[in-house]
Amino acid sequence: MKNAMQKLFGFEKGTHKLRTEIVAGVTTFLTMAYILAVNPGIFSALADQGMPTPSVFTATALAAIVGTLVMAFYAKKPFGLAPGMGLNAFFVFTVCLGMGYSWQFALTAILIEGLIFILLTLTKVRELIVNAIPSDMKKAISAGIGLFIAFIGLKNCGIIVDNPSTLVGLGDLSEPTAVLAIIAFFITGGLLALKVKGALLIGIVITTIIGISMGVTKFGEFSLAVPGIKPIFCQFAWDQVFSWDMLVVVLTFLFIDMFDTIGTVVGVSMKAGMIDKDGKVDGVNRILMADAVATTAGACLGTSTTTTYVESAAGVAEGGRTGLTAFVVAVCFALALPFSNFFLAIPAAATGAVLVLVGVMMASSVGSINFNDMDEAIPAFVTMLLMPLCYSISDGIMIGVITYVVLHLLSFKKDGIRKISPTMAVLAVLFIAKYLFEALK
User: Fold this and answer.
1) Ramachandran sector of residue 291 (left: φ over 0; alpha: ψ -120 to 50; beta: rest)
2) How far is Cα 362 from Cα 364, in angstroms, rounded to an integer?
3) What is the Cα 416 distance to its own chain's centre?
4) CB neighbours (10 Å) of residue 192?
5) Which of 218, 258, 357, 441 maximizes the CB count within 10 A of its CB?
6) Rounded CA gap, 392 and 95, in Å?
7) Using 50, 70 and 90 to split pLDDT, how confident is the model at 76?
């Protein structure tokens, strides 16, 4: 059994604890389970075009199961995967409703993106990019993601809301969801302060129960029915594969997904202590391959780009370190198929408060950034700042890379210029070209 667990998940008795890995897996699932409600909700805009919302729900769960199982058995890392936020909105509102293309066209673009990712991973191009990111920027990515997911948590709870005068502002704290989120924050924060094992999961469960009496936790009708995916399974527009617009859409998906994934992998790995003394992520190529396979499988199943979830940080914060954590996440998604109403009843107030506290944990890497060297400090700060402000991990990384290269060139220091690796220089040029293209089109 010991050898089997090690071969399957990289789980080593004495180093890892079974209970910790299971609790971490359940915690990660609970923090990312919202995608089971949100993704079908976004795709409901395409229901009139022959993309049934119930089918999208099943495809979302299946894509998460397939991708996370590959992560568990092949990469043996504690990361959960599911259709990515932002990428699903780009699919529906930009490609389909904005540009006027069919959802079959968009699925074809995602399939091509996934196949390109597999090729880039096999040739270790993606690994080269990850390893080329300087150490201080890696730390900044971790902290920036912490700020980003904390912002997401506050937004989901209604504590931070849209404000036409200042962009964002404080929400109505008398709203039941906001009140429950504040209660959740202090309950879960108190458990963390007391170093209670499974604090995040316990906090989510307690908050969900409290939410029943407040009318925030609502259970729908009990049903074991699992909608079929036949209407959206392997529906591709092969006749448009070689069009210019297909190229543009594929490249856009490619850029957003690549650097969202790289940011998540680097940030969460930094928190988990899975980065070696040279600043390289342990087993990064297998992680990226799992992500690439998940994207390809998701396109076949009928949903948007499947990617590694930043909410995996919640499980890592609980002590998840092996593929067993990911396996538990996949099992939870499988259980959610017939019991969707139960899992979807977990209020945003519960998971939102957890994301804020995970953000606190991830921000700890800021302390080891060298703020005395402005060539290093400014790009790191830009990276951290822009992730939440742009609501995009990828934009934070891309603008951070541009800032790093330009500042080191302008410093005219020999050691500064030597710090610019060929990979970083190429990336900076590509990112500048991307933003110029977007500005001119």
Assistant:
1) alpha
2) 5
3) 32
4) 16
5) 258
6) 18
7) very high
